[in-house]
Amino acid sequence: MQLHISPSLRHVTLLPGKGLREFIKVKVVSRKLSYRMLFYALLFFTFLLRFVFVLTAVDSIDGENKCSTIGCLGKKLRPKILARSLESSVPEVMYGILDQPLGKDELEGRSDIPQTLKEFMTEMKEGGYDAKAFAIKLREMVSLMEQRTRIAKIQEYLYRHIASSSIPKELHCLHLRLANEHASNAAARLQLPPAELVPALVDNSYFHFVLASDNVIAAYVVATSLVRNSLRPQKVVLHIITDKKTYYPMQAWFSLHPLSPAVIEVKALHHFDWFSKGKVPVLEAMEKDQQVRSQFRGGSSSIVANTGEKPNVIAAKLQALSPKYNSVMNHIRIHLPELFPSLDKIVFLDDDIVVQTDLSPLWDIDMDGKVNGAVETCTGEDKFVMSKRLKSYLNFSHPLISKKFDPNECAWAYGMNIFDLEAWRNTNISLTYHYWVEQNIKSDLSLWQLGTLPPGLIAFHGHVHNIDPFWHMLGLGYQENTSLAEAKSAGVVHFNGRAKPWLHIALPQLRSLWTKYIDFSDNIIRSCHIRESS
Ligand SMILES: *[C@@H]1O[C@H](CO)[C@@H](O)[C@H](O)[C@H]1NC(C)=O
Ligand SMILES: *[C@@H]1O[C@H](CO)[C@@H](O)[C@H](O)[C@H]1NC(C)=O
Ligand SMILES: *[C@@H]1O[C@H](CO)[C@@H](O)[C@H](O)[C@H]1NC(C)=O
């Protein structure tokens, strides 16, 4: 006997031993239906009725009459199980017992609960139980199983999170190798850009791009793809902002791998004048945010202890505690006007994108006085990525949010944005951003929980100009079946999904869009065993 639960918890498959041709498969459409109820239903049908079931797509459960009790579920399923009556086989007393919630510590330290379906079956055959005892045993076993499944699921979700946010050892090696190069090799310590090109950094006749990243190889792919596809690379200025620990590796890499005639600047945050001038709201906010997060919902142990919640929700809450979502690299874009006081317009790029076309036409887009040129994320083929409205990010049960915003307003994406810094300087966008970050902290993160996009959506509200989706195709790294042809035809592709192209979990067919900008025969790349196929 085997039991299999799909990761989405939407399919439960029960295979009773080899040789038996009977099997049960139930597809649940409603998310409202707990899988504990499914277990019960399945076990009923197996043990009590003993016939062959193939139940698929129990759509009716999702309909108007939602089932909240076992009895109701049994009745709902019955018509599909041949024509036999279920009521006669399942005594009401069992429904009653199975619907009772189990006491908190009822399973604690008990050794008489069957651990597997096989054990349960054996015990039932030998024990001569009546319906009530059967139901009690069943409930205990299923609850025990459910507890174990929960823990395993939470671990699985967290593992996926860790897999996507951690740095693989090859990239770690690269950073160490480059830091070493920086210390020992003068050619890895060049001033970037060289002195004669410094005037270009503040010259508004150039195309200025800004990239904030702590990942050297990712930054390099963005930079190479940008420069190689540019029709006038000599007019391209790329400002790379990084953090203190990545500064030396980043500088070493771009010293040894120049992209001339484009102008590349590498700067750590602490090198910016504005940053060293005392009060920096973004750092203060981050510090407070981190404090609140560590206490959020009583900290990680009480989040896990909340058994009423689905494993993916628990995992999401634990993720909210993760410092990754609070990285200064993510928050810093709200201070672009202060970081680049002499520039009028810039294009801001995330480090998980690849440029596939000349981007200078972005400067010709009439922004209509708006500050942020971005793609909308509520219309498009890909229903998973392109169904984002304000309600997807903000908590509209909260009066502060529902009073001010429309839940159905389309959201937009970070990743490839045109920022008109001149227009921005005439607004209070950065202030608004910090005001709302503060409100969220004060309300114990109940306005939103993850990331820097939600406060961005609020701060840029009314200041966004929609640009053609050609300029920013999102959603790579979410699903296997993103079409390569479609991705190839986009101006910029964004691996905003979990399967980043530099990770082992990258999707092989899409990875080539990224790897084609890396020279795998490069000595440093080779010495860290970074390979074309992962
Ligand atoms: C920005 O905020 C200040 C102070 O709150 C206010 O006086 C000013 O009118 C605001 N400017 C804009 C453009 O909203
Ligand atoms: C949304 O806001 C409501 C009202 O303040 C609050 O009770 C609820 O917990 C919030 N939801 C989340 C997920 O924080
Ligand atoms: C991609 O696959 C998912 C599930 O694997 C499916 O739901 C979706 O419709 C597919 N999308 C396309 C465009 O084929």
UniProtKB/TrEMBL annotation:
Pfam families, sorted: Glyco_transf_8 (PF01501)
Major localisation: Golgi
Keyword Transcription regulation assigned: no
Membrane topology value: Single-pass type II membrane protein
Transmembrane segments: 37-58
Database matches in Gene3D superfamilies: Spore Coat Polysaccharide Biosynthesis Protein SpsA, Chain A
GO MF terms, alphabetically ordered: polygalacturonate 4-alpha-galacturonosyltransferase activity
Keywords: Cell wall biogenesis/degradation, Glycosyltransferase, Golgi apparatus, Membrane, Transferase, Transmembrane, Transmembrane helix
Enzyme Commission number(s): 2.4.1.-
GO cellular component, one term: Golgi membrane
Pathway(s) this gene product operates in, as recorded in its UniProt entry: Glycan metabolism; pectin biosynthesis
Keyword NADP assigned: no
Uppermost EC category: transferase
Compartment(s): Golgi apparatus membrane
BP term (GO), one: cell wall organization
Highest taxon above the source species: Eukaryota
Family of the protein in this entry: Belongs to the glycosyltransferase 8 family.
Name of the protein this chain belongs to: Hexosyltransferase
Organism from which the protein derives: Lupinus angustifolius (Narrow-leaved blue lupine)
Highest classification ranks of the organism: Eukaryota, Viridiplantae, Streptophyta, Embryophyta, Tracheophyta
